[in-house]
Amino acid sequence: MNGWLIYNRADAERNAAFIDWFLSESEQLRLKLRLVFTDELSISIMRGQAALNHKELDIPNFAIVRTIDPLLTAQLEQAGIACFNNARIADLANNKMKTHLELAKLGIPMVDMFFQTNASIPQPPLAYPFVWKSAGGRGGRDVHLVETEAQYQHLQQQYINQPILMQKLAPAAGKDVRVFVIGKTIIAAVLRSSEQDFRANYSLGGNASLYPLKIEEQQLVQRIVDHYDFSFVGIDFLFDGDGRFLFNEIEDVVGSRTLSQVSDVNIVRLYLEYIKQSLSK
User: Fold this and answer.
1) I need a surface site. Which of 41, 62, 150, 176 has the fewest CB within 10 A?
2) For 54-76, what is each residue's pLDDT tens digit?
3) Where are the extended beta strands (E) located within 10-151?
4) Do residues 217 and 225 make contact, with C-beta atoms less than 8 angstroms apart?
5) Structural domain containing residue 156
6) Number of domains in the chain
């Protein structure tokens, strides 16, 4: 099986070790995996059919898409390439509004929130303090704690005509759990916490430890997993005042730095084995 590991160049530089891990593991599994950059690809429609173009490489059987570009994934699929994650998951996970609306249909608990699509809201719809998020942000970027009227008005101007979420601050601020999922299987969970920031992201200086999921937490996660065709995602949860899970977001292009720090789980090997098994079907 011939596959592409797709990155944009800037992300590839930051994730060189992770890329090497993918290439090494794929070789051991006898998967032909090549690193391909997004700027090397072009999509065309010739005689009514979508086609993928690369000046040097043959078109692959599959692609591991490690860049946030749901449209690119959709184009790859239309050109006949199996994508991990698929375009539907990429589109869902990379728009927080869509994610919350969809999971609300499943009755998954989450904090109260308001959406602002393209027009400013003169007065804040939530009591201070609350959390302001860009609908397409990730890794804790474009996430702000709003505590005053001045901060709120500044953000209204900074994000004018951009889709954003305003969320009630979770009772246990600065603490969340990321659950790593491959296919229909829960692999592991990591507790992330910060003493200095309301955001618990490890990349922002937070701490991490392996988190044993309670039975009711496993059941909640499995309800989400069973409903969607995930390949490899991270599902993040906050805590309510009683320590129960509140859904926060789904990470499509999920990393494994925290999991590697606190366990010996070979997440890349497991992911590639899942891909190989999926392709064999």
Assistant:
1) 150
2) 766 788 999 999 999 999 999 99
3) 32-37, 42-46, 49-53, 62-65, 82-84, 113-116, 130-134, 143-146
4) no
5) 113-168
6) 3
